[in-house]
Amino acid sequence: MDFKVKLLKRRNDSVVYYGDDLFKGTAKYYSKYRPIYPASLIRYLIRKFSLDGKGHMLDLGCGTGQLAFRFSDWFERIVGIDTDPEMITEAIDLSKDMRIENIQFFNGNLDKYKVNAHTFFKLVTIAKAFHWMDREMVLETLYEMIPYEGGIAIIDSYSPNKELSPWQKTLNEVVKQWYGHVRRAGDTTYSHPTISHQQIVANSKFESDLYQLPTYEYCWSVETIIGHLYSTSFGAKRFLGDNVNSFEQNLREELLSIEETGVFKEQVNITVIMALKK
Question: For position 192, what pLDDT does the model report?
Answer without folding.
Answer: 79
